[in-house]
Design brief:
The structure is a homotetramer of 210-residue chains.
Chain A: H1 6-33, E1 42-47, H2 50-59, H3 67-70, E2 75-81, H4 84-97, E3 103-109, E4 122-132, E5 135-147, H5 148-163, H6 170-209
Parallel strand pairs in A: 2-5
Antiparallel strand pairs in A: 1-2, 3-4, 4-5
Helix pairs in contact in A: 5-6
């Protein structure tokens, strides 16, 4: 794998992203069609750029011949939720599929344990079987599950990291931390609204049944 | 127009939404292709549901025969931005097209003057010419321009309004106001980051040129 | 299953159609990306309309509780090819996946044995596992593989059958048969072109190597 | 225009293709929604590859600074019809829009006057106004209107022309002519079916009304 044929190497990852996007979008469509609440607001996906794969393998000291085993986010799926609570519902959906169309190989809960930078998200690493015109392959994929506020913040942080080559200057780092706090605050207020709505519904049910 | 053939009535609005979505998405694609910053993050569109048109025309006491002239948001386009400042860049893009492929007939700046509920957004009302298989028509459309945080908040408010038939209970109304404050706070922190980045760039340019 | 909840019943079929479309389109994209010839020209899919499922179950005397086992084309995928020879390449692709992401349960070769009406196509019936938000299910799906000319003819025949409630008048039936012959002729001429091209290429290779 | 910035040059053409695809697809959707027959079966579009623009400008001896005025098919839209008669209905739709959202600057009827090679299609050259983030521009676009059989044949001829660098060997040229005849035959049989159906409908209407 010294000289990687990138076009060919990335094909199963591209297929996996397309298939997984369809699968998670289907969950949303099903629930809405059945008149039920969907914990999934929208789904995006991407294959990591070659330059980013090379940069990451260098940073993590991964040999070229092991990148498919050690770089877990070459295929990436992102699932956006309205409420923090929804994230765990989505994680449950994925767990139920473990051993069926996908295999869960690891999770990282950066919501309970958020990063110093302020980054919050729930990551599930899966193994996914792909059939291509050139044969079959099990690939790794990373599913990131976040609220819209977490996603908003992470998008900005990502472009700043890229801009400053991972060396974000201190004053900007500080501002970014403040923004993370504001995003966290927003998520908490939203959870409170969700809680109030449930309370209001329960009170209504109690009154109705007496 | 006593008995409206809704299928037929809504066709030019559906076409307008499709065409306008393509046009605003193209601006984003162009800028990214040219390696420039896009003030447009993503674009969505929808035609108002018949039940919502009827409810609004009743609430605003609009005669059925005038709904195409007096209900301005039957065709709706929503443009999401990362930073508050980007909203005004998008408004400028629309103004430059005034008299070309669209005509601006009104603006509502709910960002400088946000609603009591906490609602913030910039609305541009346009007139847009549509050619259908059944003839031509100038229709009205509403373009809403918002940050992601504004959009997030407005989506929640909209579903609560719908749930409580526009009578949101006071405790939930209060929570919603707190969430609006958190969303506003988030936008301000983001603008600050944007400002810091510019400062950092200017400092860099000054140093480089000396 | 006396009173079928159709919305819910059809959800796994809709998911299957979406997933299978993505999977077969990926084969085309892969091959083109690798600079190789794609036997797949384009892919479409659809879930059978409820009225058509009812009509077919009545015609074939299938009990409502057995429609998921006995009606094989509720989920339908159609793969279009340029040349008749390509059809068999696509069939090989499907066979190679047998026991992996799908299971082949039957084939019908209406190309070697075309129907009296003039209908030609290759059908593969598969079993496909689907994970929904409401649980898992193995469903049946029919993959139709055809040339563009076969598809063109079949589309017309389908709309005539529908129009005349399966009783196409004799003079139109005759015209349809003539059109089937013309479509067959077109496919044969195309295969000849394909053959000539290969001959030309071989002659060129022989000349080049001497 | 000695050194063309191709990325920038092609942007308005890409926008035009996207907008025109949406507009013609809308006609189909409208008619189907209204329960009427659509003469449009499907619509595709593409921007000419840079290498093909260069090859064509060289072959036609067009100066680089005039390619936007003299090469008419940099933006190309293709509309596919079931019956030859439908082509003229689509041409009428385009003529009705002349002076509204587009301007017709020329037509080429290769159906009445087919090319020696066997090529048949109806071409309409239009001028179309585009608003980009970098300003406005009137561009030329070519709309090709064809039956499915014409399109099928033309696709093959195009790939052979490309393969043999416009020098298709005689035996293949002959086969191609035979295929064109078969495609023409197929279209004629289809038109006959269309005629028979109309006759059958008229007879039915006469019987019903007596």
């Amino acid at each position: 794998m010294q000289n990687i044929d990138w076009e060919k190497f990335l094909i199963p990852y591209e297929n996996a992203v397309e298939e997984l996007k369809v699968k998670f979008k289907s969950i949303r469509n099903e629930l809405i069609k059945m008149g039920e609440y969907s914990p999934i607001e929208f789904v995006t996906g991407r294959v990591k750029k070659i330059s980013s794969i090379l940069e990451k393998s260098k940073r993590l000291e991964v040999d070229m011949e092991n990148i498919d085993k050690e770089i877990e986010d070459i295929a990436g799926i992102r699932i956006m939720c309205q409420f923090v609570e929804d994230i765990y519902t989505v994680v449950d959906y994925i767990s139920e599929r473990d051993g069926k169309d996908l295999k869960v190989v690891g999770v990282k809960d950066y919501i309970t344990n958020y990063k110093d930078s302020g980054y919050r998200s729930y990551h599930v690493i899966i193994e996914y079987p792909i059939q291509t015109a050139f044969g079959n392959k099990n690939i790794l994929a990373e599913i990131q599950i976040r609220t819209l506020a977490m996603n908003f913040w992470a998008t900005i942080e990502h472009s700043l990291k890229y801009k400053y080559k991972r060396q974000i200057p201190d004053p900007i780092q500080l501002r970014l931390k403040n923004a993370a706090d504001a995003a966290f605050q927003l998520d908490q207020e939203m959870s409170q609204i969700r809680h109030e709505i449930r309370q209001a519904q329960k009170m209504f049910e109690i009154r109705s049944s007496t």
